[in-house]
Design goal:
By secondary structure, this protein is mainly α. The chain is built from 18 helices and two strands. It has one domain. The termini are far apart.
Length: about 450
Amino acid sequence: MTVNTWTKKDIFALCVCSLIGVTLAVLPHFAVFLHTGTFEYLADGDDVVYLAIAKVPYYGEWALRDPFTRPSDAIPTLYSWLQFVPIAKLASWLGIPLIFMPLLWRILGGIFLGTALYVLFRLLFENCKNSTFWAFIATTICLSDGGMIIGRSFLDNFFNLKAIIFDGSLPSAIGNAVLPQYRVVTPLLNLPFVLILSALLLPAVRRTWQTAVLGGILLGCCIHLYFFYWTATIMALVMYGLVYLFWGWKGVISKESSLQELRFVGLILVGGLIIGLPQIASNSAIFSSPEFKPILERMSRGARLYINDPFRFTYVVNFWTWMQLSIGAIAILYFRYFNLGILWLMTFSGYGLLNSAIVTGLEFENFHWNYISKPFGEILLLGSLILIFQDKKVFSQGMKFLVLVILITGIFARNYEAVYAKEPMKYTKILKEIEPLRPALS
């Protein structure tokens, strides 16, 4: 990876971004501590389920299983081994109580997310005059923008603030709605792997075999971590390779350059698939088992939709993604910022798979592909605007103001959500009520 142009300012900015990420990630725990005197915080029912999954390896087992059945039943779980076992073992070895697993997840995830976003943006803006400044601005916006994952870029913080001030409540009852990028375990602990992998495809990164191996390892990790990430990533990488194949064939670039890029992407794909093969085989075995078919269908994992079912087209109309892809296309085709290409393809692949039921008729809780199309759409949008308008003083001043407002409103709303949203309040109350029983329950 090309880092020879990085300065001490870059290292400092990287550390600050990591600090912002971890601060926003763990902020609910501190907000609850100020009100109840404990750092215990559960955002919603998903946190409870994830704690139950992590409990199995935390107390000694090395394989995941359904925690709500007897160990002798050996009922498998769809959750990834890599998502839970290593960190659960780390918490156990460090003597961290199981109830603080969400805090550990948020600490690690916040650091990873801040670091990964800064690396991606810094490499994207490699040829900008003020690359460190713009990478810091873009990273801080992504870390504190409530619209990054499932909402409207740059606007959700203001809608949340309006709801708090005028309605005295938030639009959602759960504790992950204000800044969903900090939801555990997904996307917080998984998204950084996809971000770094995408950064390796930027022109600023040297095409060496070491970088290709790193890309293969990251893709393998994506496969072991999250189905919706690796499927969209592989689709984007295949399209990326086809673009370079077409350019080489048409003479847009030299055949040598085309073959070099194809070899690089091919090594990443082959290495990642080899590393991820055990997870793919495990998932295939579970999905093909008649024993688990009724359970999976009730979970909308592989449920079949009739040809005339309107649900097939639920996600087609998405004006924000259309806008992000359109602005990205203008930046690439008109302004010739081809380094945005992989970001455009990642956004498009997430949106395409989000609507895959139109062709396949299968529903896998397809809305989870938003976890690719939305964050990469915002990264694409920020990258396009900054590359196009970087030399405009009014744009620079406006971005400084925007990042400050989004950061402040994000901190305020996340603090409010942790204390006053219905789901966190409910679980804080439950934890307090069962405190005398916990030794027996553990």
